[in-house]
Each structure stands twice: as C-alpha cells, then as structure tokens.
Design goal:
The complex is a heterodimer of chains A (about 230) and B (about 290). Chain A is built from ten helices and eight strands. With about 230 residues, chain A is α/β, with parallel strands linked by helices. In chain A, strand 5, helix 7 and strand 6 form a beta-alpha-beta unit. The longest helix of chain A has 15 residues. Chain B has eleven helices and two strands. Chain B has one domain: ABC transporter involved in vitamin B12 uptake, BtuC (Orthogonal Bundle). Classes of the chains: A alpha/beta (about 230), B mainly alpha (about 290). At the A-B interface, helix 2, helix 3 and helix 6 of A face helix 6 and helix 7 of B.
C-alpha cells in the first residue's frame, strides 16, 4: 500500500486469526497507525488489497466498513466528549440492533465496566483517561465486531489500568470468533496478552510470528522493540 | 407604560422570527462550522414560490406546507451541490460560496419577480388584539408567529434530545470521523441538517413577509438580526438561538421605539459588539471540550 509521495506502508502482508490477539509492534513512524487507518477506510492507499471474511474492504466508505463488523478504536481515546457515556454506547448500537436488544447490550457493557455505570448520564468529557479508555473499548465491543482494531490503548494510562484492560481484552477474545489487532508502542505489555505479533519497521514487515517466539528473541527485541 | 408594553410585545414577535432564522444558522454552523449567508435569501426564494402559489389560487395552508417542503429540498440541494464538493479544504471557501449564492438568488428573484416590493398575506389578522378595553400591539398573526416558532423549536429539541436520529445528528456534528467509525452515515446527516435549516429559513421568510416590504432584499436585514441572535446564543445551541432571538428582537424594538427606527441596525451592531466583548463564546455555548 502506498500513499502520496512517500510510501508509509510497502507490501505489508499480514494475517490475523479469529479468537486471538495479534499485536502490531514497532517504533514511531513504522506505519502502525496508518495500517489500522487503512483497514478502517480512513486513509485511501494508492494500491493494495484488504480482504476481510472473503470481502474486499478497500475503496469502501468508512461507515460501510464499520457495518461489516470492523470496530476501530483510534489513538487518543475517541470518546465523543459532548455526548453522555450512555449516548456514546448507544450510538454504536444504532445500525446493528433493535430497541430492546440495545438496552440489554448497554447494560451488559456497564456490567463489564461497572465503573462507567456510575457516570452513565454524565458527559464523556468528565471522565478520566482510564475511564475514557474503558468507554471506547466498551463502545467498540458493544456492536460485537468481528474485527477489533485498537490503536495504542495503553497511551497515557497508569500501568495497573493498562494491565487490567489488557487482561479484560484477552478474556473477552478467547473462545470467540473476534479477531483483535492491537497496535502498541509498549511492546512488553502487548506481547504478554497477544498470541501472535507482527513487527513493522519503516513501513515493512520485519517479522511475523507467535508472540512467545518474538518475546524470546532478544536480538529482535533489542533492535526493534527497545527492551 | 402603554408604549413600553407595546414595544415589548412587538420585540417578542420579531424576536421569535429572528430565532427561527438563527436556528437555521445554528443547525448548519454546529455541524459544519459554516455560516450560511444565503439562509435569508433561501427563505426569500421560497416565500416568492409561496407568493406564486397563492396567486394561482392555492390555499394558504397548502402553500405554507409546500414551501416548507421546498425549503427542505433546497437546503439539501445547496449542501450536496455547492458545499459538499468543497469539503476538506479551507472552511472559508464554502462561506464565500454562500455569499455568492445570496447574490445569485437575489438577482434571480429580481429577474423573475421584479425588484419592486409587493404584498404578502398573513395567515391571521394583523390588527391588534383587545385586552380589556385597550388594543395592544399584538395581533392574531403575532400569536401565530409565537406558536409556530415555539413548535419549530420544540420539535428540534425533541429531535436532538429524544430520538436516535437526533443522537446521530449530534454525534456527526461533534465528531464526524469517530461517528463514521461507529457506522453512522455522517454525510447523509449533514445533508439532513442543511435541509432542516432550509425548513426553518422558509418559515422565517413566510413570517417576515407580511410585515415587511416583501421583495428580493427583504430578508437581508433579518439575516443580520438573526446572525446577531445566533452569536449571542453561542452559534451552537437551539435554545441559545431562541434566547438570542428574543434579546435581539427586544433590543432593536426598544431602539426603534424610543430612538427611531433608522437606528435599529446600529442598535443590532452595538448589541453584537457588547455581546462579543462580554461573552465571546455566547451565552449558551457548550463548555470547551477537554480533548485528551
């Protein structure tokens, strides 16, 4: 895939497995965010192909890709600050659920994140960083996506909060047919919850393997992941 | 005392009309950050269409409803044909296009209908009501203005606050990209916002016409007042548009009643200046969102 004058991503080929978390790792500028934004249709590459459950996603509108079961949680916690917590959740259910099912799904999300239920009628702008992250992940899960794209969920969060979120994510993925693609700067925490990992460097895939194998390769870790 | 009451009543009736047009400006600005300078001219155009329908013997209420529908379609067409193609570049470009549209529409109306002003009928009697034994400067038509704008405002608030469509519209206005990621058809909802603004603008045109010299330019000054109202209200809130409309209507009514009607536009300018200096973000602006 290539964009404009500079190729942000070149011949990136990766496959992610349902029921597992695939981590995309790499330094700043490796093309991780661009990769996710390409999958969800926010940026249009000059050439390439993105196939998801046998269908070509490239060239489709962002909202159509979302309605295909792709939930993208962008970097920087995309809560809609002007809406209440509950409205943020409800918005994500409008295209895929009837009225009755919707209320149940919202309650289920509050059970998953009990902290949020106390703020359900408050504007999302009043939430802390960790609460916002819970809200956007809850909002992404509520539509029961087939593909969940998470961009730097740990950014700016306390390590304990990050660990809790990661554990919740792992529990929520196992045994389902949801495919999770997790972009992380924080490679150590990402590798601890992922089954597979892909290391990107300057827009190209360096290695794609089982997460445990990558975590055990100290040369690779030193060179590309910084730990 | 009698003079004060009458001036106040007149201010309320005018203020409600400004509120309707201010609502149109707000609906578009909150979603697209565009000030639609052609909003008044669109209302002028639809009112000319109403005038033609009435000339052909169509009943008032049929013409009234037809023209609100025409306003809806025209609002949507302006967004799709003129504004959408300019998306993604400078926000100033579409604003300048709306000024161009204003000039084109006024020229068009002048060519088709002539530049001289003509009469336009009111839905109800325009002679003042009698309270006790005194006649007040508030007519049946003023009551109609009050009720129809309140219905418009209430419908807008119910739409935004209590329906899924309104939730989608608010989300699209506040956070287009995130809304699209959640499966919301943002483009369609922006068009709908312009269409609803077209309805509000058409209503304002129909309500102003009977009490002014109805011609191609009769909405120009009304747009200035409505803009003042919208800015006072914060440019983002329908309730703000209503309050801003009433403040503007009353202020210029007092200026006109006590100082002379020629000073009214100046009064609006002073009001706008004072409002911007005292509360630059408007009375009803939403608190600045904390983006993290």
């Amino acid at each position: 895939m290539s964009y404009g004058a500079i190729d942000a991503l070149r011949s990136v080929t990766l496959t992610a497995r349902p029921g597992a978390i695939t981590a995309i790792l790499g330094a700043n500028g490796a093309g991780k965010t661009t990769l996710l934004r390409t999958i969800s249709g926010l940026v249009k590459p000059r050439a390439g192909s993105i196939r998801f459950s046998g269908e070509e996603l490239l060239g489709r509108a962002v909202e159509d890709i979302a309605r295909h079961g792709v939930a993208h949680v962008p970097e920087g916690r995309g809560v809609i600050a002007e809406l209440t917590v509950e409205e943020n959740l409800r918005l994500a259910t409008l295209w895929c659920m009837g009225h009755r099912e919707r209320q149940g799904a919202i309650e289920a999300t509050f059970e998953l994140f009990p902290r949020l239920s106390r703020f359900r009628r408050r504007h999302a702008s009043t939430l802390s960083g960790g609460e916002r992250q819970m809200l956007v992940i809850g909002r992404a899960l509520i539509s029961r996506p087939k593909l969940l794209l998470l961009d730097e969920p740990s950014l700016g969060l306390a390590p304990l909060v990050t660990a809790q979120l990661m554990a919740l994510l792992r529990d929520h993925t196992q045994g389902t047919d949801m495919t999770v693609v997790l972009v992380e700067q924080n490679a150590r925490s990402a590798l601890s919850v992922s089954q597979r990992a892909v290391v990107l460097n300057l827009g190209e895939v360096v290695v794609s393997d089982e997460a445990a194998t990558i975590a055990a390769d100290s040369g690779l870790r030193h060179h590309y992941l910084g730990f | 005392m009698g003079l004060f009451v009458n001036i106040t009543l007149d201010g309320i009736a005018n203020g409600m009309i400004f509120a309707a047009l201010a609502l149109a400006l707000v609906l578009i600005f909150r979603a697209t950050r565009i000030v639609n300078f052609a909003q008044g001219a669109l209302g002028m155009m639809t009112t000319f269409i109403a005038s033609s329908l009435l000339d052909r013997g169509v009943g008032y209420w049929w013409a009234f409803l037809a023209v609100l529908a025409v306003g809806f379609v025209m609002g949507a067409m302006v967004e799709r044909l003129l504004i959408r193609p300019l998306q993604g570049k400078s926000e100033l470009n579409p604003v300048i296009v709306t000024i161009g549209l204003l000039v084109v529409l006024e020229g068009l109306a002048g060519t088709i209908y002539g530049n001289s002003s003509r009469g336009f009928p009111a839905a109800y009697s325009q002679s003042g009501l009698t309270v006790g034994h005194t006649k007040i400067a508030f007519s049946h038509f003023d009551v109609f203005i009050l009720v129809s704008v309140l219905v418009l405002m209430t419908a807008t608030l119910v739409l935004f606050r209590a329906t899924s469509l309104g939730l989608r519209m608010r989300a699209s206005a506040f956070a287009g990209e995130i809304s699209r990621l959640l499966g919301v058809r943002v483009g369609l909802l922006l068009t709908l916002g312009w269409a609803l603004a077209g309805v509000a603008g058409s209503l304002a045109g129909l309500l102003v016409a009977p009490t002014s010299s109805f011609g191609p330019y009769y909405m120009d000054l009304v747009l200035v007042y409505a803009f003042t109202a919208a800015v006072i209200g914060g440019l983002e809130s329908p309730v703000g548009a209503l309050i801003g409309g009433l403040i503007t209507g009353l202020s210029i009514s007092y200026v006109g009643g006590y100082l002379g009607s020629g000073l009214q536009p100046l009064g609006a300018l002073v009001l706008l200046m004072v409002a911007l200096m005292a509360r630059p973000e408007g009375i009803f602006a939403r608190p600045p969102a904390r983006r993290v």
